[in-house]
Structures are given as C-alpha cells and as structure tokens.
C-alpha cells in the first residue's frame, strides 16, 4: 500500500521485472519513435518507514511537481494568483478539507486551501472506504479512480485463542460499490489533489492559519479576517473570507480557538499499522480478519492482520 510498484514488462507474454520506467516518457513515442507531445514530470522515491529489514527500504513513488502544490520544486504555474478575498478559506488538506474544496470548485465558489505539510500523507492512518463514500465521489466523477486502487473486501473472519468465532460475508450493501474498498489515505489525497489541478487550484503547502478574527458586527460581506503564515518562508498574508473551514484534524487549532470540545472516547489501546508480508498458516485471504489472543491481537482489512501489542 505504502510501497511503490516495481517496474515490469509484458514483452514476452508474461510479467517480468524491467529496468525501464514504464510510467515515464523518454521524450519520444515508444511505438512510432516520434517526439512526444508531452513530457512526464520527474518522480521521487520517498521513504515510508523509519525501520527497515533484509527485504530492503520501503519507499513510495511520488511526483512532487504534481502533488506538492505551492511547495513544488519547479515553482508555481504561471496561472497561479491567489486572491486576498475569497468566499471560503479551508484550513487542512486531508481528505475532509480536500472534499470541501472539490465540492466548492464544482459549484463555482471561490476558495483557498492551506495545509501545514509539504506534501500529501506518505503512509499510515486510514486504509479503506465504504460504499456510501464512493457514491458521493461518483457525483464528482472520482469514484472509479478510488475503487480501482485496491482490493474489495466482502468477508470477515474472527479468531480468538486459536478458535474460529466467525467467518461470513460482511461489508455488504445494495450500492454498486458493494464492499469495503482498500486504499490508503495518502492515495485518496493524491487523487483529490490531481482533480483540483483540473480546476487550476493548488494546495498552499507549509502554510497555517496563524490567527483569525470574526467581525460579527461588521457590514462587510467577508467578515472573517485571517492571518496566514508560511512556515517555510516566514511570509505572512492577510486574507478575508465569508467562511473559515477548520479541517485540520483532531488537534485542530481552529476548533481550540473557538472553544469547541473534542467529543469522543479515549482508550489505553496502542494501534500500529504495518505494510508487510506475513509468513503464516492463516487460512483466509482478502478478508477483514481479526485474531485475538491473551497477549496480543491482530487485525487486517486485506490478508491477515494488524498488530496491536
């Protein structure tokens, strides 16, 4: 999931390892040998883990000029000219903030979207979406890009202390996208960022909402005054908006400034996500599996498990 697919070729009728970069145009058409009308951007292999083993370093192939917004190594496009007065300013470019941006772009509502990170999430966090989520994306023409990324999970298996408690169909619905679709949060963000580019919108990276004031008594059509800070350059900018959207996660600075409580339940459980290959006699493949024991638990939305120690 958080590992780049190695290059391969089907030249001999079956898949074989290849040294050619199939995702990169070399300045000419492979079949006609004529000059290509398009040149692919430079890719970068980004390390996805701090710990490695004998299998090598796990890395994910990404394209900074495509996904890193205003932090692109090639700079911003000529058409990029952010307005100092917009209808909506979105703080946070995770899935929630990007979904707001996608909806506004399709409605012709002016907006800007900022995020503290320099790039989309590289690994970890969420790893699947439900049918109703894909139905919403279908309205935007993005469902196919998401549901083709990974496997479809339709069964659940639960074991406890070596005994099978449950194995049957699950995650079923009447939707055309009937099951649990496996995809990492980072990949969803990249799909959304690509779509924003189609609308000539960029995520303003390394940028945070430093402060904001709501002039409730003002007659202005844009009562929210926001101070943006680029943490990379130190540049500050004042922006006026009709609405400010706080989509900056569980530790949201917007929520804290407004004294809105974070409702929920805290536990003493430690969660960890592993992107790995297990050598196991676990009898089920491509299921939502859960293996519980006295000392540890394992659960996985794909092959075997997630480790909880």
Q: What would the keywords be for this entry?
A:
alpha+beta; 309 residues; 6-stranded mixed beta sheet; 6 helices; 18 strands
Please tell me about this protein's structure.
With 309 residues, the chain is an alpha+beta fold. 16% of the residues lie in helices and 27% in strands. The chain is built from 6 helices and 18 strands. It has a 6-stranded mixed beta sheet with strand order 12-6-5-15-14-13. The protein has a 5-stranded mixed beta sheet with strand order 10-9-16-17-18, with no helix packed on it. The protein has a 3-stranded antiparallel beta sheet with strand order 7-11-8. Strand 5, helix 2 and strand 6 form a beta-alpha-beta unit. Helix 2 packs parallel to helix 5. It is globular, with a radius of gyration of 23 Å.
């Amino acid at each position: 999931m958080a590992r780049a697919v190695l290059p391969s070729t089907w030249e001999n009728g079956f898949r074989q390892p290849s040294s050619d970069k199939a995702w990169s145009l070399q300045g000419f058409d492979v079949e006609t040998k004529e000059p290509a009308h398009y040149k692919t951007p430079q890719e970068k292999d980004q390390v996805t883990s701090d710990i490695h083993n004998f299998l090598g370093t796990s890395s994910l192939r990404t394209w900074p000029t495509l996904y890193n917004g205003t932090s692109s190594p090639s700079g911003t496009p000529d058409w990029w000219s952010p307005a100092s007065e917009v209808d909506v300013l979105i703080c946070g470019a995770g899935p929630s903030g990007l979904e707001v941006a996608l909806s506004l772009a399709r409605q012709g509502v002016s907006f800007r979207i900022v995020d503290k990170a320099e790039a989309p999430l590289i690994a970890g966090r969420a790893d699947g979406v439900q049918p109703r989520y894909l139905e919403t994306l279908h309205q935007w023409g993005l469902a196919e890009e998401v549901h083709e990324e990974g496997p479809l999970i339709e069964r659940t298996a639960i074991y406890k202390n070596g005994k099978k408690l449950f194995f049957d169909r699950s995650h079923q619905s009447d939707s055309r996208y009937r099951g649990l679709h496996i995809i990492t949060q980072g990949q969803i963000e990249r799909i959304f960022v690509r779509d924003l580019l189609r609308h000539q919108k960029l995520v303003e990276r390394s940028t945070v909402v430093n402060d904001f004031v709501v002039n409730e008594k003002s007659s202005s059509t844009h009562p929210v005054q926001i101070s943006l800070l680029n943490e990379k350059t130190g540049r500050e900018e004042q922006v006026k908006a009709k609405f400010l959207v706080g989509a900056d996660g569980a530790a949201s600075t917007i929520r804290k400034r407004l004294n809105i409580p974070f409702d929920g339940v805290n536990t003493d459980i430690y969660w960890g996500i592993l992107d790995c290959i297990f050598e196991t006699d676990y009898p089920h493949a491509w299921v939502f599996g859960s293996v519980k024991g006295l000392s540890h638990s394992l659960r996985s939305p794909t092959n075997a498990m997630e480790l909880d120690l």
